[in-house]
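Flp pilus assembly protein TadG: structure tokens wanted.
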Amino acid sequence: MIGVIRKGLRRFLDADEGSAVVPFAMWTPLMVGIALSTIELGALTMRHVALERALDQTVREVKLGTGRNYTHDQLKTKICDRASVLVNCQETLQLEMVTLNMRSWREPEANADCVDTSTGEVTPQRTFEHGQEHETMMLRACYKYRPISPTSYLAAELPKDAQGYTALVSTASFVHEPM
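Answer:
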């Protein structure tokens, strides 16, 4: 009887059929996390590039459109139309435009003015100034979005608000051309 048990134990210890299960179980969460983070980084980069490009194109139009004052909503619509990959752009994009005085320099507000997603109401703008000829202007756009996979390594490290939105901020500056 003891020989049968000993023989069965020896066969069990010498068997290697299930040897790949343990490393697979240990490495799979890491590989899935890296894959999700890669997808998240690609989506974040795509959104940021689209926002930067749309903002640059809109600023170019504003500075060359001599004598025309654009409203916040007009600029927002132009940016959102040019950045079609930004989902819910009209609802989650906030613009801020301020005059920069080069002679008596005052640092612009460090934090971008973003949409408050916790309320159903529109967040009022902090500042939106129309500049004069030869004035240097700063236009800052803040777009809020939800990460694709909030549990991925990258998305877990992104700063988020209470509703799980994270912000992308793009800034452009320009000088109003004379008429």
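The radius of gyration is 27 Å. Helices lie at 2-14, 21-64, 72-82, 89-92, 153-157.

Cheers.
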